[in-house]
Amino acid sequence: MANLGIRILGLNLEHPVLNASGILGSEPEHVDILVKHGFSCIVTKTITLEPRKGYPPPILIELDNGGYLNAVGLANPGVRGICPMVERARLLGRPIIVSVGGGDLREYVEVSIKAEECGASGVELNLSCPNVRGFGLELGVDPSMVYRVVRDVASVLKIPVLAKLGFSDKVIESSGRALEAGAAGLTLINTIKAMYIDVYSAKPVLSNKYGGLSGPPIKPIAIRVVYDVYREYRALIIGCGGVSSWRDAAEFILAGARAVQVGSGFLRNK
User: Where would you tag: which of 143, 146, 158, 191 has the fewest CB atoms within 10 A of its CB?
Assistant: First the structure.
């Protein structure tokens, strides 16, 4: 039997497949589900300082092209939810990375500090949420802001910091600034801002109108970004976007990723 074990972020993982932030990971029972499905490392949903209810339904639609469009709105329990999830992951023998969101630098720092205090194995800074104003995408497309957020967080933590960046014309520059600021690695990419209009009602389907496109339709874009960023920096990259089979994972690894995250593929096959 092939040995698929890898070592990243100071962690020895059984294999290179993690879950992607956003599907599950805001309650301890979600950790149970993710461990049961075999992920080698757990990634939480994006956690903000205060609880967020997110957007009213509809927040998720399945598209004819095999993808999904979602606008959850970063619904999460706030920092009070971090310690119970970390404790459950430890009990089940899995490392856990806390995805961190913020509306400003202070929030990113405070949530990240709480994650470390709770015993998280690392943090993943969500710098690319496409459907919540002020929480991600505006930061990720500004390389100077990426640098400031990563620098401020990395300078106060001992655990490793990942920067999760989305697709933009500045993703290579933003990746470089994140690494320069102290990121141990990058997660590439996030969902892509998109919209679906119902031709019968003549209105956007999602309550937020805009959503994040995920799944197979974005995989070729994600592969290209991983390839270009790895060629430029030879950095630790976790590939994300359309992974639903071993071939998809292999393609990301051939492009330069050391590991992959599964989001929509898990949603479809769970």
Answer: 158
What are the pLDDT digits (tens) for 3-18?
889 999 999 999 999 9
Encode 222-257: b = buried (16+ Cβ within 10 Å), e = exposed: bbebbbbbbeebebbbbbbbbbbeeebbebbbebbb
- Among all residues, which ones are annotated catalytic? 129
Distance CA 70, CA 214 (A): 8
HEC string for 128-174: CCCCCCCCCHHHHCCHHHHHHHHHHHHCCCCCCEEEEECCCCCHHHH
Residue 201: C-alpha distances to residues 72, 127, 204 (Å): 22, 34, 8
**Length of the chain counted residue by residue:** 270
CA distances from 12 to 6, 93, 95 (A): 6, 12, 9
CATH class of the domain at 6-269: alpha beta
Q: What is the DSSP letter of 83?
A: H
Whole-number pLDDT of residue 134: 56
